Amino acid sequence: MPLTNKNAIVTGASRGIGRAIALKLAEAGANVACVSRSLDSVKETVAAIEALGRKAYGYAVDVADFAAVDTVAKQIGEQFETFDVLVNNAGVTRDTLLMRMSVEDWDFVLQTNLKGAFNWTKAVTRQMLRQRAGRIINISSVVGLTGNAGQANYAASKAGLIGFTKSVAREFASRAVTCNAVCPGFIETDMTGVLSAEIKEKVLQQVPLGRLGQPDEIAQAVLFLAGPHSSYITGQTIVVDGGMVM
Asked: How far apart are CA 118 and CA 148, in angstroms?
């Protein structure tokens, strides 16, 4: 178990990709702080990690609120002596064509998806740099690479995460703290579950492997980046999309 005695923070850990990541890190030996908008939503993830024999704690916070994030990070620091892995996974969508997109829709998505990653990274920076060790993994999206009609806000936030990842990687490299991004393609989650059969069929026509991905397949990529075998990898964008944007 490559993450034995390591401590991880996973945002958006209540369901889908975030839950799969939290469980995968725990299976590899890590204790996990599970962050979500509400405690009720993350209880199941916490219980599943505890059943594996790891320590797990649930925290409710709006990732877009830096003061709240900083407070929760300090609370996590009281539970965990080290911050070894940070996974910035929390994300939202408010899809509509640009001409119909409200300022509120734009701000909400950018504040959550992009500023949220900034807030959490800033909150753990001092401890990670002091340790001279750490892994920061940002969950971006293939939409951040290609753009997508009706998702200008989401695509901008995910593209911004890639630039953020590269900048953090350069800043933190001298202290052996790495920062990488993972770009999922179309993954079978609640978010894609609402798509019509017609839309899913059109999506699958773009995927050479001919199927939607599974949350666990994203979690496996995150586990690799969180573990010792990725120690010479930083500033990279790992695309897990069945070949969609090759």
From this structure: 24
Give me the helix-helix angle, 16-27 and 215-226, nearest 10°. 50
> pLDDT tens, 107-163?
999 999 999 999 999 999 999 999 999 999 999 999 999 999 999 999 999 999 999
Residue 190 tokens, joined? 């609640």
Does 57 participate in catalysis according to the annotation?
no
Q: Which of 57, 59, 154, 232 is catalytic?
A: 154
At a CB cut-off of 8 Å and minimum separation 6, what does 68 contact? 61, 62
Q: Global pTM? A: 0.96
Residues 6 or more apart from 7 whose CB is under 8 A from it?
A: 30, 31, 32, 33, 80, 81, 82, 83, 84, 85
